[in-house]
Write a sequence for this structure.
């Protein structure tokens, strides 16, 4: 599995922490930026880069996007067809979102999470499989159909 990371200036320190953590766990990590702390950068640039990279091999890739409140990057990545992203609040919430909704990207709010909380959410995201029950598949297919007609 390849994990793509992206963050603006507010999320930059947390992204760097998560990147080091994931590489230490043996994950293949690709940093989609920002690669320097730039107080004038814009979160959509990095969010779109992560979303597009994840979509290249949807079954093999996951993404983590970070900004101050997590909302901006969440909105941005969900504009790319096929992305199913949510704002990560707790490991339990992300476990349910992976199991039920097969999310492929999480958004994190750097202003409201400690490093320990963020790692708990990331671990849950990367280790929980999709439940693949008929009702989950049916619901995702409805979302995919809507994307194709919008």
């Amino acid at each position: 599995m390849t994990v793509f990371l992206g963050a603006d200036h507010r999320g930059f320190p947390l992204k760097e922490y998560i990147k080091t953590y994931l590489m230490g766990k043996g994950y293949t990590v690709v940093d989609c930026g920002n690669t320097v702390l730039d107080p004038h950068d814009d979160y959509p640039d990095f969010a779109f880069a992560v979303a597009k990279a994840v979509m290249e091999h949807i079954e093999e890739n996951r993404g983590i996007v970070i900004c101050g409140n997590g909302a901006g990057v969440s909105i941005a990545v969900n504009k790319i067809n096929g992305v199913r992203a949510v704002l990560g609040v707790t490991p339990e919430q992300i476990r349910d979102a992976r199991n039920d909704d097969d999310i492929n990207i999480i958004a994190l709010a750097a202003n409201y999470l400690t490093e320990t909380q963020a790692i708990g959410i990331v671990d849950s995201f990367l280790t929980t499989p999709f439940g693949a029950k008929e009702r989950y598949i049916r619901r995702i297919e409805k979302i995919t159909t809507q994307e194709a007609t919008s």
About this structure: The chain has a mean pLDDT of 97.
